[in-house]
Fold this sequence. Notes:
The complex is a heterodimer.
Chain A: H1 2-10, H2 12-29, H3 31-101, H4 107-110, H5 115-128, H6 132-136, H7 139-147, H8 152-159, E1 160-171, E2 178-181, E3 194-197, E4 200-208, E5 213-217, E6 225-229, E7 235-239, E8 247-251, E9 264-267, E10 279-287, E11 296-301, E12 310-316, H9 319-330
Antiparallel strand pairs in A: 1-2, 1-12, 2-5, 3-4, 3-12, 4-5, 6-7, 6-9, 7-8, 8-11, 9-10, 10-11
Chain B: H1 4-20, H2 38-41, H3 49-67, H4 72-91, H5 94-97, H6 108-131, H7 137-166
Helix pairs in contact in B: 1-3, 3-4, 4-6, 6-7
Amino acid sequence: MHRLFHVLFQSAHITVFLLLEAIAISMFVNSDSIQSTMISKQGLSLTTSVHRRLNYLVETFTLRTTNGKLNEENAQLMSDNILLREQLNLQKQVDLITSFKQGGSTPEEERVLDQNELVQSLQQVNANQNPSFQGHLAPKALEQIFVNSSKPTQNIMQELDFIPAKIVQTHLDAFQNYIIIDKGEVDGILPDMGLICTNGVVGIVDHVSKHYAYILPLVNVKQPTSVRLLKSHQLGSLVWEGNNIYTSTLKEIPLHVNPQVGDSVVTSGFSAIFPQGMFVGTIKSVNLNQNQQFAGIKVSLAVDFTTITHVFVVKYSHQKELLEMEQSINS
Amino acid sequence: MHNRPFYIIQFIVLVLAQVFVLNNIPLWGYIVPMVFLWFILILPPKLDRNLVTLLGFILGLSLDFLSHTYGIFAIATTLVAFLRPFILRWFLSPDELDTNIVSYKAHPTAFLAYTGVMLFIQIFVVFMLEAYNLAFILPVLVKTLLSTLVSGLLIWGLDQFINTQKR
């Protein structure tokens, strides 16, 4: 016993080192639970309020570029708005015609255009507007939707809500990257909600405190995201492999799907995190090695994480219900 | 040797700068300048080893709590603080270690080599723990090398600056 103490005293620095290292390692092993308790108990607001002040300072210098971007987005939204309004008017007119054809006529309805003329004017509208809308709203398909006018899209829109938020802090150069935004529990934000910006998908809410939320972006090694190829509808998993924050890796796409460079990758919509079909990125390179089961695909992400400032949290009205159900299944 | 208030102010400034500025400048997603290690680097070589290890632990812990990475910085910084005497002895002769100050001015090449090795160990451990997967060894090494280079340059600059101010 005496000798043991002697040895311990002789190598005191090793003992001290091992002791401190043991404390640190136990913290690291339990970091998930420490993180969630620390963050939910105001742990975020301590440093985050400082970050927020610093951000105000930075923002004043970048106002000009931010303003320019917002203006562009505004212009885009305005042109979309005009297009949609035109289509809404046309829909009303088509509705009137169909009711007219089924019988019952009023002088007002007689003045309405013939259906063929309608389709023609619709084509004109489409040609004048944003080319990206042309594919989606081919006149014939539209005609069908309008005539059999059940309104499935309306229900989806009622369930969805977008909460605007600002990014307070980003940490992007390591492996477990994170983003902190200035909206939290008070604003109705819950874990597992999606975060998007006007360019595409940003990430998923991991923890929330009262006024802030801690986001795991697409560029975090712990955050695989369920995605789909727009053309082939093939499901895959987007995994970030720590290389750089502009590209990510798409896994589980079988060789026979034959993905092409430039194809769009969108969200699958299988969970109540992101709506279906939100833009994630485009395929940058494809490696079709016949010896392997799946294709090796690199995706260049649509969002530039270094420049985003304004984001939206996607909120489903039934999110809480869904979470509770998942928890009850798991427990 | 610097006086005690210098070390205290240096500690606070470095931790705050690391958490609020350096961790938030995105450098192409590859580089995290870890300048805070400068605090451990320029502690007097004759300082009690246990104290150095303890200071390393406290430094890592403060960074962990301010940047929501519980344990990662504490593990890495405690390790380099513990290894410091060995690395110092590796690059500097006993006579040089008696001077009670390590800086670029006194021993340029030795100081740079010592800084490089310390930074490399620190940053490699931090990234490896963050990735927590051997499959990421290649990006971890790339990021470690780049970050070591940039951090080393920044520390060299800081050291130069402080020493010219003192004169």
